[in-house]
Amino acid sequence: MSEQSTAAAAGTIDVGGDLTVNRLGFGAMRITGQGVWGDPPDHDQSIATLRRAVELGVNFIDTADSYGPDVSENLIAEALHPYPDDLVIATKGGYARSGPNRWTPDGRPEHLRSVCEGSLRRLRVEQIPLYQFHVPDPKVPYAESVGAIAELQKEGKIRHVGVSNVSPEQLREAQGIVNVVSVQNRFNVTDRASQAVLDICEQESLVFLPWAPIQQAGKNVGVLNAARRLGATEYQVVLAWMLSFSRAMLPIPGTSSPGHVADNIAAAGLELTGDEERAIRDGGA
């Protein structure tokens, strides 16, 4: 594995048919404060982390108004605006925050409009390339929430629409309202509960954004064995496995450290054998 590997080594994927990005992105949740609340403990380090990601070929960054709240989006704009022509910034709306580690679904149409317009201002863009409904709100009919985002798209404030934390049935409901181009669900080596959603993404050329992609890496025997053979970290092996597992997959590992960004991106140049891929798939917890 070359230390000079960039995100381009992962190949590319099309988002919505007209936005081509490298298939290893960056998740910007961890550049905020503890509990995903408030400013980061080291502002300059968070700025350096974002810039390092882009230097190493990342051109897809995932964030949300709820990260901070507002902090992640503000940091992205501070670090990277004016943005490179090929950079796609995806953000999300649908959570209200009341404190560290406190997440309350809010899918009311008026909330989604407010936070989307806030994201436009913070990110300093006229149109958000990919806007995702963050989580279904049990107090609001799913169709109402998705319909509100579809309306924002009609107004030109959103280019493409994605959904997050959905079941296959919710994905199908959303698709009946608006053209959905991506899904962001939890998925990693020990949690593949969203396999049915991933199958739909593969069949219909939707992008699948796995959140928590490197959690529980050390509990998979196949990962540990491959890491020893390759002289790589467990996290690098997991990311390489996810890239090989599905062509629909666009992993978005996050960190607040420039060094860890480089380590994660180096996974794009890692090559697993077929036996290793199968062992990881079947390795269990």
Compose a concise summary of this entry.
The protein is α/β, with parallel strands linked by helices. It contains 10 helices and 11 strands. Strand 1 and strand 2 form a beta hairpin.
What does this structure look like?
This protein is of the alpha/beta class and 285 residues long. The protein has a single domain, classed as Alpha-Beta Barrel (TIM Barrel). Strand 8, helix 4 and strand 9 form a beta-alpha-beta unit. The longest helix is centred in the middle third of the chain and has 15 residues. The protein is globular, with a radius of gyration of 18 Å. It starts with 11 loop residues before the first strand and ends with a helix. The model has no long low-confidence stretch (mean pLDDT 95).
Task: Please give a handful of descriptors for the protein shown.
10 helices, TIM Barrel, alpha/beta, 11 strands, two-stranded antiparallel ribbon, seven-stranded parallel sheet, 285 residues
The rounded distance between the terminal residues' Cα atoms is 26 Å
**Name given to the CATH homologous superfamily:** NADP-dependent oxidoreductase domain
Arrangement of strands in the largest sheet: 3-4-5-8-9-10-11
SSE order, one letter for each helix or strand: EEEHEHEEEHEHEHEHEHHHH
Radius of gyration: 18 Å
Task: Give the overall form.
Answer: globular
Q: How many structural domains are formed by the residues? A: 1
Biggest sheet overview: 7 strands, parallel
CATH-defined architecture: Alpha-Beta Barrel
CATH top-level class: Alpha Beta
* Tally of strands: 11
What structural category characterises the helix and strand content?
A: alpha/beta
Catalogue the unreliable spans: none
The CATH topology annotation reads as TIM Barrel
Count of separate DSSP helical elements: 10
- Estimate percent helicity: 25-40%
Fraction of residues in β-strands: 15-25%
